[in-house]
Amino acid sequence: MNTKKRILDAALKLFSEKGYGNVYVGEIGEAVGIKAPSLYKHYKSKQDIFNAILDEMKNNYDKQAMALNMNGSDVNIDVGIFSAVSEDELVKMGIGLFSYFLHDEYVCRFRKMLTLEQFHDSELSQLYTKQYVDQPLSYQSAMFSMLCAGGLLRQEDAEVMALQFYAPLYMLLTLCDRHPEREEEALKLLEQHIRQFNGAYSRSLS
Amino acid sequence: MNTKKRILDAALKLFSEKGYGNVYVGEIGEAVGIKAPSLYKHYKSKQDIFNAILDEMKNNYDKQAMALNMNGSDVNIDVGIFSAVSEDELVKMGIGLFSYFLHDEYVCRFRKMLTLEQFHDSELSQLYTKQYVDQPLSYQSAMFSMLCAGGLLRQEDAEVMALQFYAPLYMLLTLCDRHPEREEEALKLLEQHIRQFNGAYSRSLS
DNA sequence: CTTGACAGCTAATTTGAATTAGCCTATAAT
DNA sequence: ATTATAGGCTAATTCAAATTAGCTGTCAAG
After folding, report:
1. Which residues contact B205 (CB under 8 A, 6 or more apart)?
2. CA B93 to CA B99: how far, in whole Å?
């Protein structure tokens, strides 16, 4: 009875691995355990399946945004002038964000699919940019802004700090999308990055 | 007489915009000014055209690497203990690299094509990673290593510095691939990034 | 001048993938 | 019990795109 949903999952998996154009409806059916024509009892075309994935995604958007923003540590709430944000907490947050992005099946597949379709039309490029660039940057910018205001970090442009904090994470993430076997290496680099970042900006060092 | 070459150019352009699977040989022919069947006088299949692009690319590799590495400023040679690498030089180098990657027609198209085909097989993912991750990081790592040794920058892990310097550039580049209209904004951020990076690591500030 | 090979064309041909038609079964509501 | 609907299947159908066949004109080498 959840065939409709299972089709979406199977299709997302395939689209994220091979790209929309290289996936045949037969494969989707096979992955679900039905024949190709039966798909049409649930969706009126291949394109329709793709659209449904996008729609579903837009629904999950809030959930995603939440997860993205406050992953694990609730930095944004308790970050008054008092509570110290230790280096370890920053590391935990960075690694947590990275691991979530890399291992959450849905998030990961969706990102890969969007990567492959990003130049297809304006809607998709906008979506990609919002999800993986603007939104994270804007959230972290706000966070660093607070940390600076709270006197925990040196007074520097928060947007730039966000870029410097997030871009390495992003790059390592896309690296691991291509080469999962390099995750360990990436994690090590990421942690080093965050500690060095913290060292460079932390008040106590200046 | 250079039809063979013109086919490659047209195909690369199309592949980089729509992805291999969504380009029809008819379009390639049209772009060149001949009919589809005539393409087969030059290449034995569509796949063969794609392979030829890859081959050509591998040839140009040295050229690319050079351009990538010493773009404009010849930092790597004159960076003895004496010659100061001013912040402005670093900015010039970063912006130069960025602009080259973004505006050189061949480089740009090739990157976009690889972006769209990166999960297709291992060869392509390796190529992407080498070109846009490992190679730049390794070069810049060497550079920062020298700058640290020369006492121009604080003694920190050069690999991490390279990551921190290059990843924002990379992320802004992929952003502009999707949204050319945001180049100005990206350039501004990039320059801020580099100055702030320099501020954070420069010896004189510590 | 004539021959052969190069590079183009039009008109098939092949192939393969999406979609439609039409049939069958189970099950749930009337 | 009957019937309608949901969801599956096999067997067409359609359609588009890659590739092949086979013809033609040009031009350089002999």
Report:
1. A206, B199
2. 10
pTM exceeds cut of 0.85: yes
* Same domain assignment for residues A21 and A100: no
Is pLDDT larger for residue B181 or for residue A83? B181
Nucleotides in chain D with any atom closer than 7 Å to protein CB = 6-12, 16-22
Q: Are residues A102 and A200 in the same domain?
A: yes
Nearest CA to A27 out of A40, A17, A14 is that of A14
Residue B113 makes CB contacts below 8 A (sequence gap 6+) with B12, B15, B16, B19, B20, B53
CA dist B102 and B177 (Å) reads 7
Report the run of H or E that residue A34 belongs to, with start and end: none
The amino acid occupying position A78 is D
Residues A106 and A169 both lie in one domain: yes
pLDDT for the residue B69: 58
| Span B96-127, pLDDT tens digits | 999 999 999 999 999 999 999 999 999 999 99
- Is B115 found in the same domain as B161? yes
Contact B178 A17 (CB under 8 A): no
Parent domain of B20: 1-52
> Residues of chain B whose C-beta is under 8 A from some C-beta in A?
16-19, 21-22, 112, 115-116, 118-120, 125, 128-129, 133, 156-157, 159-161, 163-164, 166-168, 170-172, 175, 177-179, 189, 192-193, 196-197, 199-201, 205-206
